[in-house]
Specification:
The protein is mainly β. It has one domain: Porin (Beta Barrel). It is 5% helix and 57% strand. The N terminus is likely disordered.
Length: 295
């Protein structure tokens, strides 16, 4: 809500920054660096999503923050294989604050709710070129702060590439890119890398443990950094833990935030559960998702 303080001088820019801030709140439930996020709904963070080869991919995620923040959101995507073109799809997301009531010339609420939300609706594409997965998303955004509205169109691009077989991966993506600036709080640049620490067979499935590092920058404040570990057992089970340092907190130790996620595969469905431990005793944020792959 600190972004609202500058709304009087630059209302449109402040609203756009507030909209991206709401998405950053939703992103606190990511248990991997945003650039390395995978899955149909992960196209919101990095459009280069080519790991799935199913004919149709559907996904829905719901996000709920603690009552001290009281923000909730959702992401829904649908993707299809389009032959040599690669994969194409649509993505919709919305994050908003609730229980903000209007006051006039006294602290007593009038009973009227103040709408504060941001939404994004876009088309996304991805394809494998050589060994590199590339993707792009064009999205329309609307952010509303009470009676004020701000609208814009963003173009995001992303790439992900394995190195030395499957030993390493590097990834890079823009997030809500709409201006050629490195100090715009309405957008981010994500980068990430992972390294395979161990792999082997458990029962009949391949087990892998990876170390991850990510960074979010070019948003007008100190870079966010993410350090994590992930364990995968084939496509049936995955567990991720991550420690994120929020650059907005400066050198305050309270800027460190742990988060964990669990993904379970059941037939053509995958269920994701994630929890952020929060900072400054605000409480935890949660994300629940399900996606389906139709062949």
């Amino acid at each position: 809500m600190l972004v609202l303080a500058g709304a009087s001088s630059r209302p449109t820019a402040a609203q756009q920054a507030t909209g991206t801030t709401l998405w950053r709140v939703a992103g606190t439930t990511l248990a991997t660096p945003p650039a390395l996020a995978v899955g149909p709904a992960a196209a919101l963070w990095n459009p280069a999503q080519t790991a799935d080869t199913a004919r149709v991919m559907l996904a829905f995620e719901a996000i709920q923050t603690p009552s001290a923040v009281d923000a909730s959101g959702m992401i829904a995507t649908a993707r299809v294989q389009a032959g040599r073109l690669g994969q194409i799809g649509v993505i919709f997301g919305r994050v908003g604050l609730s229980d903000i009531t209007q006051t006039l010339d006294s602290p007593d609420p009038t009973g009227t709710t103040v709408p504060v939300y941001t939404l994004a609706l876009g088309a996304t594409w991805s394809r494998v070129l050589g060994a590199t997965s590339v993707g792009a998303t064009v999205a329309f955004h609307q952010t509303r702060l009470d009676a004020e509205r701000s609208e814009r169109v963003t173009l995001d691009v992303g790439a992900r590439r394995p190195l030395l077989g499957d030993r390493f991966h590097v990834a890079l993506a823009t997030h809500f890119f709409s201006s050629f600036k490195t100090t715009d709080p309405a957008q981010d640049i994500y980068a990430g890398a992972d390294a395979r620490l161990w792999s082997g067979l458990y029962s009949t499935e391949r087990a892998v443990i990876r170390a991850r590092y990510g960074v979010s920058f070019a948003h007008g404040f100190a870079a966010d950094q993410q350090f994590g570990l992930g364990a995968e057992l084939g496509k049936s089970l995955a567990f991720d833990v991550m420690l994120a340092r929020e650059g907005g907190y400066g050198n305050d130790a309270a800027g460190w935030r742990p988060v964990a996620g669990l993904r379970v595969g059941i037939g053509k469905y995958r269920i994701t559960l994630a929890r952020d431990a929060g900072v400054n005793d605000l409480g935890s944020a949660y994300r629940v998702g399900v996606d389906a792959r139709l062949r």
